[in-house]
Every structure is written in C-alpha cells, then in structure tokens.
Write a structure and sequence with these properties.
alpha+beta, eight-stranded mixed β-sheet, four-stranded antiparallel β-sheet, 7 helices, globular
Length: 231
C-alpha cells in the first residue's frame, strides 16, 4: 500500500485502501505514480494514478475488464477499449470521525431475511438478486420498521464494502428516516472495525447534503465507475 500511504488521501482512496486492509483485495501493479488494485468480492479493478501517463502504463497489456473504478474521472478515455456500457461519475464520501452516530429510537432495524428480503428484491434494481441474497446472508443488509410496525426502508453494504442501497419508501419520506438508516449502517461498519464510505453521484444533491449533515467528508475529486461489457 506504499503508493496510497505516500499520498495519504483517505477519502479519495478508501475504495482501494479499505478492501486492501481487510484482505479483500490485492495490488496487481504499483509504481511511484499509481496502483492498480483488484477487489475480490465484486471482481472490480480500482485504478489510482497521478497522471494520465501513469494510469495508461498501469492498464497496459490488460485486454479485458468488466468492472472498474477510476479514482480520477479524467482517465475515462483510457477504458474506452473495454467496451463498458454503464457508467457513473461520483464523489466519494467517508466517515472519519470516532464517535458513533446516535440511534433513532423510532425505528426497529433488523437483518433482512425472508419477507423483508423479498421486499428488497422487489424494489432494488442496481444489484442483481444473487448479489443481494449474498449480502443478506453475510448480515450486511438491513430492513427498518417504524413504531407502528409499518415498513420504512432498507440500507446495506455493497459487495465491495462501501455502504449504500439506501431506500426510504415514498410514504415514509420527509421524516428523517434516511439519516436514521444511514446512521445505522455507519454504526454497523464502525462496530465491525471497518471504515464507512460511500459513493454519491454528482447530480444527487440530496444525498450530498445528507452525507455532510451526518459528518462524512466528501472528496472534491470526481471518480468514475464503469461496468457491463457490450457484446
């Protein structure tokens, strides 16, 4: 992790340094100007580099990539040859504080299983059903009810370790439940000895505001994620 240690940018690089720290990723290539990491659970490549030339050198010789994250969205032209059709430009956010977020007593939150897992599978489209089931089996997907027992929403970790999947059902919005659900996943990560981090799309101003309100630091840099090969 010497490249990342030398740069000491915990918010920008946590998508690579956290999986590496947890033994869920490995450095494939590393130079004085960058590093290429392979994350195991999602099969994602993570590229961090100081310049376009450094990034090009790290990708040189790779013929096929199905899922990649670039820690600099300006490197996008380098991955055109992989034919990845789906893309997301985003900022990275990380909770670097030591204090746990407060618990919201209005909610009962439990690990998703059975009926609640089925409810998530009905609603959430970004992750495939098999991936969602595995997240639930790992105890990393949570479903919330209010004090009357009505369904509120859910939150969880993605396979690569960042948190997300935050959904508050329409009839429950405007009551602060999104912050309560995110507070739960922040506490869960911290109690597991993990750094809570997430990705926020550039245009998602509501989520950006939520991250700042909860005390997360947001990278000024834009990153890019690309996946889904064209066949």
């Amino acid at each position: 992790m010497s490249y990342f240690e030398d740069r000491n940018n915990p918010v920008l690089h946590c998508c690579a340094t956290e999986p590496l720290r947890l033994g869920r990723a490995r450095i494939l290539r590393e130079t004085s100007g960058g590093a290429l990491v392979r994350e195991d659970a999602a099969g994602m490549y993570i590229l961090a580099a100081d310049s376009l030339a450094d990034a090009r050198g790290l990708l040189n010789g790779l013929d096929s990539i199905d899922f990649i994250m670039l820690c600099n969205a300006d490197f996008a032209p380098l991955i055109e040859r992989f034919g990845l059709r789906d893309r997301m430009v985003f900022h990275q956010a990380a909770y670097l504080r030591r204090e746990l977020p407060p618990v919201d007593p209005r909610l009962r939150i439990e690990v998703a299983r059975g009926r609640t897992l089925a409810r998530i599978l009905e609603v959430y489209q970004l992750n495939g059903p098999e991936s969602i089931r595995k997240q639930a089996e790992r105890g990393e997907l949570f479903f919330a009810f209010d004090e009357q027992g009505a369904e509120v929403g859910f939150v969880g970790l993605h396979p690569e370790g960042c948190f997300g999947m935050l959904e508050v059902f329409p009839e429950q919005r405007g009551r602060g439940y999104g912050a309560a659900l995110e507070g739960h996943i922040l506490r869960f990560c911290m109690e597991q000895g993990r750094l809570p981090y997430c990705q926020v799309e550039e245009e998602n101003l509501v989520s950006m505001h939520l991250q700042r309100r909860l005390g997360l630091e947001i990278s000024p840099e834009t990153l890019l994620m690309a996946w889904g090969r064209e066949h």
